[in-house]
Amino acid sequence: MPTSTIWTAGSIRRPTGADVEQQLTLRIGLRDSATFANFFAGDNAAALHLLQQATETFVYLWGGRGSGCSHLLQAACHAETARGGSPAYLPLADMAQAGGELLEGLEQMSLVCLDDIQAVIGDAAWEEALFHLYNRVRDAGGHLLAAADASPAALGVALADLRSRLAWGPVFQLQPLDDAGKLAALQLRARARGMELNEEVGTYLLRRAPRDMHALFELLERLDQASLAAQRRLTIPFVRDLI
Questions:
Q1: What architecture (CATH level 2) is domain 179-242?
Q2: What is the domain partition of the chain in residue ranges?
Q3: Most buried pick, 36, 82, 126, 236, via CB within 10 A?
Q4: Each residue's pLDDT tens digit, 185-209
Q5: What is the mean pLDDT of the chain?
């Protein structure tokens, strides 16, 4: 029977329970590019620094699409693995139908990263499961990072005890990058891929491509693959033909 799976360092945890036969198989992996070194902080330097220190038991990040929440959660997992820890990453937007029992036993991990928690807020069973996970992680001495598209107060949590848990630690609103920051972020990502993205080509992309960073990074990846296949540098004529 298919079971739901979550990404952990070195192992996959499979939930048990009466509803497991109804759950979809989910293969969750971390992006290799999602590292702290590959994150252009802009006005989010304080959040980046705190996550790199890995000293807080609970941290809550929030921001819109492309703000960098998912990147930072996955980067924290990569860093925890490098330290010899045991992280788990759960994108709850992909797991909402599986049920809150997915959270059972996660306090055994040294780091738990819950992405897109807004996807399960409003479901009483999920809210109860999140509440108990916070308590278990605290009691086990682990760390938990959560990310959503709104602040804890604006998330619409029905369970009052969970609302308080979400704000137990530092809360950061990730600030969007301005155009100069987006260009710098693209150039940083390009250098990590071994590409040269000069200011002229980068500015051309910003003027003609979707504005959110998620879409821009996906476009950069496609351009990288195309330039490798064609054995050509990224120039405006080459980019124009592709987009």
A1: Orthogonal Bundle (1.10)
A2: 6-173, 179-242
A3: 126
A4: 999 999 988 889 999 999 999 998 8
A5: 88
Question: What type of residue is 55?
Answer: T
The 3 state secondary structure assigned to the chain is CCCCCEEECCCEECCCCCCHHHCCCCCCCCCCCCCCCCCCCHHHHHHHHHHHHCCCCEEEEECCCCCCHHHHHHHHHHHHHHCCCCEEEEEHHHCHHHCHHHHCCHHHCCEEEEECHHHCCCCHHHHHHHHHHHHHHHHHCCEEEEEECCCCCCCCCCCHHHHHHHCCCCEEECCCCCHHHHHHHHHHHHHHCCCCCCHHHHHHHHHHCCCCHHHHHHHHHHHHHHHHHHCCCCCHHHHHHHC
Q: Which of 193, 180, 184 is nearest to 220 (CA)?
A: 193
Both tokens of 50, joined, read 């705190």
- Structure token pair of residue 10: 């070195």
pLDDT in tens, 70-114: 999 999 999 999 999 999 999 999 998 889 999 999 999 999 999
β 143-148/111-115 pair status: parallel
Q: Where do we find the tokens 């100069």?
A: 180
Counting every residue written for the chain, the total comes to: 243
The answer regarding whether domain 6-173 maps to CATH 3.40.50.300 reads yes
**Rounded Cα distance, 184 and 78, in Å:** 23
